[in-house]
Design a protein that fits this description.
- The structure is a homohexamer.
- By secondary structure, chain A is of the alpha+beta class.
- Chain A has a single domain, classed as Tetrahydropterin Synthase, Chain A, CATH 3.30.479.10.
- Helix content of chain A is about 30%, strand content about 30%.
- Chain A is built from 3 helices and 5 strands, in the order βαβαβαββ.
- The longest helix of chain A is centred in the C-terminal third of the chain and has 17 residues.
- Chains in contact: A-B, A-D, A-F, B-C, B-D, C-E, C-F, D-E, E-F.
- At the A-F interface, strand 1, strand 2 and strand 3 of A face strand 1, strand 2 and strand 3 of F.
Chain lengths: ~140, ~140, ~140, ~140, ~140, ~140
């Protein structure tokens, strides 16, 4: 059964795209104005998709309140109203939407694996950085 | 060829999430405020996706007017401005978005199978219950 | 100074448009499918607009957290996930968006008058019932 | 790794759905008001999706500035503010969203194949013609 | 009482901004790519706002079904799926959003004046040409 | 004549709400998580509204290309992809949406006063900070 339940969350954060391994000029060429020294920010829209059988009793793929709780704890509390470079750095990676998306995927995988969301599996994480660009990651 | 034509429809309905097989307390724990006795409602956004070859003559995957007609007859006329528990109950199921989505998928399958929409096949049904949660079903 | 701060809130509710003073036929003619016996529902989008001077110290027209608190207490807790006819009836009025909007305006006026939101005044309440119709009320 | 980067672009164009191989009456029956003699128009929303590994240095699937440049040159400059029948005809096809989508897919394939966007591959092209209908094409 | 009921309608049309009183070069300078010879098009979003007392019996500012009927007859049937220059020309004016908006305002004024929408008055007409520009007209 | 032309622009920026005149604790109480030390960010949506007569020759309230140019120079180039506290500080004010809105209004007033946009006057500036809160300023 190909059944997918998705839920949208929002958080606001700032970041600067910059890799110390590059020279100043390379950083500027690769990241353009996203490399501006003091950073800038976005209203991120996060979409978490769970796949699974519909429980015949509850009529649901997973418990939405529990999913909300897990995402709040693992994602929103950590990233909302932060600077992604200084407050919420992850594995020394450049905080592109791509890396942020994978980080969130890796943070949510254990929640699904633990069984606290029932049989549902993490199917996909998608982040909209602006209304014109977004990234999605469905695992390896 | 992976070619998909999608069309959005809208309907407004009310529902109450409640399963008689559960106790009052269980219902409250499982469904939260969605279990409130007199129900509540939503503006549902339905997305029907047809897959198929593009007809080289018409340049279309399927006849949009005929699809509209079928969805109006099978879905909108039945669910719009109704109470999903009292007016449009389906197989005694709790009217979650999941169950509603599968019900609509099952209602549309025979339309596609009948050939009245040409070679197009039903690829997916997706329902947005609020701007923050949606469900999609692509069949078994 | 014409300065306006607005904040959006969302709630889901069901209702039936029906006036006991009319005959069944009159109700049907006036309200159409909105008169369906078991009701239907919407995702309401509420917009509350405050007007006032910008506090030179805080840089704000009013304290957003306090506004949120007041709207939650006076509006969301009362109307969200309810049936507007049975759970949240107001002055025996037909629960049209017009009447709902004025009811909310009247509920919020004392909050602004009390001074707990500083000098800000209630400028306007606006409700979107569907993406195609909305109502706004700016007082008498 | 299933990682997808998408970018949205917009263009405004007019078109008339009409196939000379059909009689006037057939055209009218097949295309309805979209066959009106002097045409009509839309604000098209184009979504280009690239798939690929995330470059561990840049943290990106592909260079967004280069993708923008390619889409501007191959798509926007050609279709924006044009009449799709008279200015930007493609292979004598009826300018349905389906045919337009495949035309754009075929125009972008060589850009991805050329390697100027790195290892990223063209995963999908999606066009929204109105807020109620859209088409996507993922290749053969 | 400042009470406003608004309703959104949509239509798709093509146009070319061109004034015969100007030279080719002047037209090009004034209208830019909107002057392209074969025109282009948009999905127009029209918003009609009625002002008035809320009828204490119906709870409504005006009869929405009657407003829909009037707008369909006076606006949608005339402009939808047309070329604004060739099919629906109005007083030899350049079909800018400004002129289109005023034309629609003038077409709807008699409907409101006739009393068929009760005591409601036409407060405003607003047209969105693209998601980035819109025009509104509230009369003289 | 009450005729208004509006245009939407977008920019991404970061900020921290903090007033040195307050103690750390006061800042925290007044601004909440918006006071987080390293800041956060938003996708700002700016709406500039011009009022005026419609030029009977051009059919326009003001020249959109010239307005775009002015807003780019005075607003976008200055605020886009910046940190509002460190890169684009204005009169030592806390960079709330309110203060940002008035700053932009003051920056655009001379453009309208100069006559380079014809007879059009600046009617209003509106900024959406998130999809749930926005501020508008129409001058003194």
């Amino acid at each position: 059964m190909k059944a997918y339940f998705s839920r949208r969350y929002r958080f606001s954060a700032s970041h600067r795209l910059h890799n110390d391994a590059y020279s100043e000029q390379e950083n500027r060429e690769i990241y353009g104005k996203c490399n501006n020294p003091h950073g800038h920010g976005h209203n991120y829209i996060l979409e978490v998709t769970a796949a699974g059988q519909i429980d015949p009793q509850t009529g649901m793929v997973c418990d939405m309140a529990k999913l909300d709780q897990a995402v709040r704890k693992k994602v929103i509390d950590r990233f909302d109203h932060t600077n992604l470079n200084l407050d919420a750095s992850f594995r020394n990676l450049v905080p592109t939407t791509e890396n942020l998306c994978i980080e969130i995927h890796q943070n949510l995988l254990p929640v699904f694996a633990s069984g606290e969301l029932g049989q549902a599996m993490l199917a996909r994480v998608r982040i909209e950085e602006t209304e014109n660009n977004f990234f999605e990651y469905a695992g390896i």
